[in-house]
Amino acid sequence: MTVAKVIVDVPAKQTDRPFDYLIPEHLEEMIQPGMRVIVPFGPRKVQGFVERLESESSFSSLRKISEPMDLVPVLNKELLDLAEWLSIHTLCYKISAFQAMLPPALKAKYQRKIKLLAAKEVVSEPFHFLFHERSEILWEDALQTVSLSSIQKEVKNGNLEVIYEVQSRANKKKVKHIYSRLDEHELKTALESLNKQANKQRTVIEYFLKHNQSIEQRLLLSELNTSSAVIKGLIEKGILAEQEVEMYRDPYKEREFEKTFPLKLTDEQTKVIQPIHASIHNKEHEVFLLYGVTGSGKTEVYLQSIDKVLKKGEEAIVLVPEIALTPQMVNRFKGRFGDKVAVLHSGLSVGEKYDEWRKIQRKEVQVVVGARSAIFAPFENLGIIIIDEEHEMTYKQEENPKYHAKDVSIKRGMTHNCPIILGSATPSLESFARAQKGVYTLLTLQKRMNNNPLPPVEIVDMREELREGNRSMFSRLLLEKLADRLVKKEQTVLFLNKRGHSSFVMCRDCGYVMKCPHCDISLTYHQYNNLMKCHYCGYEEPTAKICPECSSEHIRYFGTGTQKVEEELTKIMPEARVIRMDVDTTSRKGAHEKLLNQFQDGKADILLGTQMIAKGLDFPRITLVGVLSADTMLHLPDFRSSEKTFQLLTQVSGRAGRHELEGEVIFQTYTPEHYSIELSSQQDYDLFYSREMMIRKSHSYPPYYYITLITVSHEQLTKAVSVTEQITKVVRQKLLPNTVVLGPVASPISRIKNRYRYQCLIKYKQEPNLKTVLKSILDHYQGDISSNGLQISIDVNPFLLM
Ligand code: ADP
Ligand code: ZN
Ligand code: ZN
């Protein structure tokens, strides 16, 4: 007998282990590890993942697997092992780890279908009837006539594929294909029997004599310069037939990618690429930190490293921050590697993501460029993993499994014996410290490609402006430079750091600030629909006209949203053409790209936006970058706030003067003396690094210490407090004496969605027992978690401390 160890899709502590199921005889040959199956579980049927097969079980009466969901594994051996590793290191359930690795389409409601990939004649007899005049058939319908094992055989031969069609409005795209119903001999006969005048039909038949395969109708028409009426005639004669064929919804397909070729590397680039190439060549795992200012040629180094990997017949994963997955960035990879590239990011529909994932699984592509979750791309011969802008916080997932893509990449790199490149102009302190210690290999690109110096930055003290009577959000210097650019017809980027700087609504008489009734944060004012919104729970209400506290009518909107900046700007400089990019103007699909294209085409003088314009912009006419308030992020309750400020400001400054025209940058700030503002204005990463390291050391923060954050939340304040107290006590007792345990304290955001939040922060150098202790805590509170609405979130190496 064969027993399948199955992890069922019931995320709970009691079910976070494999259950034994008997494989029924008719499925013996079929079930493999990494496949999903339907199994009976209690009174119902649930989905599960086969983790491994064994020949015996310690249980006597086993239930049987009901049916397979996949005919080829969706997770390979490496990913199954990786899930085990993830569940240990991030303290998540196995099932969450499995699901994190799959495209959402495999979790959604779907229709299972069998799809014909090869010519109909190639598959075995019973399928001929099934696929008569269609190329897809519902799974259930197919099973009426053919056996599961015969389907699986054809799937293995590559003739059929099982697909999961998501049942949503976003239906897949189909195109009409034409094929010949006749074989060569019959076609010749048909040709001879044609009417002498039927020249057009003759051409078409001759075409199919030469190319006996199906072709998209549109292409056939244009190639033969013929009409659909001609084709229709031949279909009526029974010579040709048409079928609807699914097109991969490749969102980049319609675009032309200008082919690019490897550039001759500079001396600096040659020096950094040598050890990378050596590591690829020798199949040795090594982590490289590629530290180079923006425009120093890092991407070209990535491209040529990937090229080497592809020539060895291996594959590459490139991670870029979600926000940087702009067409510009994608073009660089598609331009070099063409249709060897799949792209995965959150802007794609569920179906599109699934298509891209299938290209990887079916080995149709060798490179994937994507956001965080692309780290799980099911490649089997990985030759390199590249993480661009490695300091970005989007690489850390905030929900379970709370993994960091960097850790996963290193784990996979060890398995595949391949190098990892972490690239950044402003590496995270953790990575730079590791490079200093020799854990990572530091590679440096010091010069910008165009040899332009980094743009000079001027700091404007906004307190001074106020003192001298300027109440506007624009300093006089910035306005002066803006006007100058308008005259010169050069472009400006204005950056508004919105994070932690929402436009709140306040009563001027009593100082009351409108707050979310469910969360401990102020509501954000959205002018375009005149609503106040909570950014945590989505609560919204019409903008208050009367103060709920004192009934005053003097309500004011504070803070500066992009919209407000735009208004003021158009008042001061009515002649300036402004494009605003923020969450509101880019929520529609493709809007982001459209706005950027307009700006690139010179349809505007000023691009005004939030974080989302900080990256990837590379336009030759940008010569001025203005940061409206450089210090807003400094005041967040987060030990990384200086680091994040430094990174962001450095990144933004890099947008100016990337080409021939020289650029300049202005930082407006209320705290000009702060070292992260001062040092980012000098683009002095090294000095910032040593200053910040001293502070981290004195406060026992990373990279000197590791941290783990436990957040407890409950609707009742007393419950949240008492559980956090107990946890803190246990942690103190069980961990080493030199480990620092802080808490219990209220979280910086002390209430979200009506739940009170308390936390306990653990700082440690080495703590071999940590995972065991944390796991036992989770186990201990399991009852409260499942029945009493208690939530305990454990984040090992958190990025957000809120
Ligand atoms: P980064 O990724 O560090 O920002 P890029 O790789 O984008 O830098 O390089 C900046 C610019 O320099 C790009 O326009 C790129 O095409 C160009 N470039 C890079 N390497 C070379 C090279 N070896 N020779 C000529 N131009 C190069
Ligand atoms: Zn009031
Ligand atoms: Zn809320």
UniProtKB/TrEMBL annotation:
Keyword Zinc: yes
Role, per record: Initiates the restart of stalled replication forks, which reloads the replicative helicase on sites other than the origin of replication. Recognizes and binds to abandoned replication forks and remodels them to uncover a helicase loading site. Promotes assembly of the primosome at these replication forks.
Cofactor(s) needed: Zn(2+)
Name of the featured protein: Replication restart protein PriA
CDD domains: DEXHc_priA (cd17929), SF2_C_priA (cd18804)
Details of cofactor binding: Binds 2 zinc ions per subunit.
Transmembrane segments: none
EC numbers: 5.6.2.4
Statement: the UniProt record of this protein carries the keyword Nucleotide-binding: yes
Domain named Helicase C-terminal: residues: 542-699
Any one Gene Ontology BP term: double-strand break repair
One Pfam family, short name: DEAD
GO cellular component terms, A-Z: primosome complex
InterPro entries: DEAD/DEAH_box_helicase_dom (IPR011545), Helicase_ATP-bd (IPR014001), Helicase_C-like (IPR001650), P-loop_NTPase (IPR027417), PriA (IPR005259), PriA_3primeBD (IPR041222), PriA_3primeBD_sf (IPR042115), PriA_C (IPR041236)
Residues reported to bind Zn(2+) 2: C516, C519, C534, C537
Catalyzed reactions per annotation: ATP + H2O = ADP + phosphate + H(+); Couples ATP hydrolysis with the unwinding of duplex DNA by translocating in the 3'-5' direction
Annotated GO MF terms: 3'-5' DNA helicase activity; ATP binding; ATP hydrolysis activity; DNA binding; zinc ion binding
Binding residue positions for Zn(2+) 1: C507, C510, C547, C550
Domain (Helicase ATP-binding): residue spans on this chain: 279-445
Gene, per the UniProt record: priA
Domain of life: Bacteria
Lineage of the organism: Bacteria, Bacillati, Bacillota, Bacilli, Bacillales
Native organism: Niallia nealsonii
